[in-house]
Amino acid sequence: MNVTFVGLGVMGGAMASNLAAGDVDLTVYNRTKEKAAPLINQGAHLNESLHEAVEDADLVFTMLTGPDAVQETALGDLGFVQSMKPGSLWVDCSTVHPAFTKLCYDSALKEDVRFMDAPVAGTKGPAEQGELVFLLGGEEKDVNEIAPYTSIMGKKAVHVGPVSHGTSLKMVVNLMLATNMAVFTEGMMLGEKLGLEKDFLLDTLPDMPVAAPFLKMKADKLRQDNYDEEFSLKNMHKDLHLASLSGFDHHAALKITNIVKEAFSEANVNGYGDLDFSAIYEYYRSLHNLEK
What we know:
Blueprint lengths: L2 E4 L3 H12 L4 E4 L7 H5 L3 E2 L3 H6 L3 E4 L4 H9 L13 E4 L5 H13 L3 E4 L2 E2 L2 H6 L2 E6 L2 H14 E8 L3 H29 L4 H7 L10 H10 L8 H17 L5 H18 L7 H8 L5
Parallel strand pairs: 1-2, 1-4, 2-3, 4-5, 5-6, 8-9
Antiparallel strand pairs: 7-8
């Protein structure tokens, strides 16, 4: 199959790199073409025209920053869906909300293009190592069609249900990711204020049954004051906003989610947005005047 990958950011670049390394006939497109240089060295073809990049593709993957980017790139007046050939398949790995995913499906259908949602669980490291978990929404035959490619980019693919169900599960996953990080941060703050040592808390709390497993990895970042981006704080804030919109759409009262969203919003506007989302901890330290 001719495969095109659109969006070569932190996640998309790593995913496309794994496809290129897997001998996939791959064309890539990114607004900033410099990001494609490593992929060209791996044998991928760069097309600087978005429409030409997809016109011969049997399968198009997108990994973009959110609904606005997908709208502009795929669905707007200059969007690429209108240039895809009839019967081809668009797989959106971007984190968006379910209502927008349904809009993507309807727009693709009008152009005789198949569509499925395939957001991923995992950050920069798993993306680079090909260990993402794909959360798939779509028809069984389409899930089977993309299986050779998701198996290159990830360690597992979960067919959640029809279109938008992959995105729905992604909303739940990221809601829990963010709230767990925020609760851990507040626990750390209280512990330190009560006189417990930071290193002791980082050694102890992640091994307790009350802690989410991913916090063991984040504890190492907190210990080293290393907030290099794996999944940015500003994107986590965006995802919490999307979860809040989904709650509003479906009359679900997400009280804790909205409180956590505001905490991430404060950290974002105070200059922590481009850091890893675990930097919410560093923001809290600054509020409490705690020494490093």
